[in-house]
Amino acid sequence: MINRQRVVSEFMELVQISSPSRREAPVAQRLIPALEALGAHVEVDDAGARIGGDTGNVLARIPGTAPSAPPLLLCAHMDTVVPCQNIRPVAQGDVIKTDGTTILGGDDKAGIVAILESVRVARERRLPHGPVEILFTICEENGLLGAKNFDVTRLAARRGLVLDCDGVNELITRAPAANHVNFVVHGLEAHAGVCPEQGISAIKVAAEAIARMRLGRIDDETTANLGMIEGGLATNIVPNRVTVKGETRSRSLAKLDEQTEHMQRCFDEAAARHRVIVEGREHTARIEARVARGYERLDLGDDTPIVRLMTRAAERLRRTFRTRATGGGCDANVFAGRGLEVANLGCGMRAIHTVSEWVDVNDIVATAELLVALLQVNAEN
Ligand SMILES: [Zn+2]
Fold first, then answer.
1. 54 and 126 in one domain?
2. Mean pLDDT across the chain, nearest whole number?
3. CA–centroid distance, residue 277 to ligand 1 (Å)
4. 9 and 33 belong to one structural domain
5. 329 with 285, same domain?
6. Predicted confidence (pLDDT) per residue in 271-299, tens digit
7. 360 CA to middle of ligand 1, Å?
8. Chain-centre distance of CA 295, in angstroms?
9. What is the DSSP string of 76-107?
């Protein structure tokens, strides 16, 4: 049913078009005619202009052929992580990998190819299907910025899939919400050799806070990480400022709050232990904390309509299929936070975000088959 050769050549072509975040225009220009060839009306939104990119999100609307079938959203992202210049894919049997100097970009071009091929096949075979809205987003890899700047009220679909996960025949239905945390530690500067007792070392305050902090794997649904630290001016100055940036994620919102407060408390308590009196005036270390929700959680029960549709599609193909949780976030989290019912389907990408990235063509074909079955099942509903 799936045209395997077409899948391979489209994938090979797309991965060779470099598309780091904010520079997706060349791949968008290649995808727009491909979408129009599917009978789609294509629009590009203004998300790129708002976040400094060279193209917006690409939304393609394909009219349905089954009268009462509800519309479905199929989404993948156009950007990749780096290094992604001069990608030279190497095919060895069914496996496509890199030459070892770049990423491959199967994240997320495997998803894009599976979506395009499935709709192509549905049209060629005149399979009745509901309206399909294909959304190719920008800037997923640098903070889900394309999805965050996409106006979901432009969609007719209330449910659908993001294809942006490793593995195959697997549906991510649960994923954490995330908080970005940013702490600025304010100390007091002083000459390190002449009068260190008149200073408060922001580095020492930060070190004490971090030493007492629970980080890493907190429990089976909660993680925390401090990923960046910056501060100090010179070895002979007691440092008066350190910035520490991190994140925490949890599939439980209560645990997310608890861990966020814990991280904040560690800094506040460390600051409270550091005070000096200089010329009769008391100085205390001080923390400036900023917490921002990175994205909302994904939490779909196995009985939600999109999960039931996917399960029936897999049954139709006699596939072993499972739902599972992940610790990662993707565009689906953003759409879930805005009330859409969107799960994340595995599409065959492997060893992503590394120069060892690879895909097995069989997995992309299997994913496209699942999507065709999904369109059919949805039309019969
Ligand atoms: Zn991705």
1. yes
2. 97
3. 52
4. yes
5. no
6. 999 999 999 999 999 999 999 999 999 99
7. 17
8. 9
9. EE--B-S--SS---EEETTEEE--SSS---HH
Of 255, 271, 294, the last residue of a domain is: 294
- Domain extent, residue 185, equals 181-294
Amino acid found at 312: R
Q: Residue 52 C-alpha to ligand 1 middle, in angstroms?
A: 20
Q: What is the pLDDT of residues 160-204, one digit of tens each?
A: 999 999 999 999 999 999 999 999 999 999 999 999 999 999 999
Model pTM score: 0.92
Active site residue ranges? 79, 140
- What is the tens place of the pLDDT at every residue in 251-264? 999 999 999 999 99
Q: What are the E-state strand segments in the chain?
A: 41-44, 58-62, 72-77, 90-92, 95-97, 132-137, 159-166, 170-175, 177-186, 216-219, 222-231, 241-250, 275-278, 281-284, 286-295, 298-299, 322-325, 341-350, 358-360
Report the first-to-last Cα separation within the chain, whole angstroms: 22
Query: What is the C-alpha separation between 235 and 92, in angstroms, rounded?
Result: 54
Q: What is the CATH number of the domain that holds 365?
A: 3.40.630.10
- Name the domain boundary from 241, 270, 294: 294
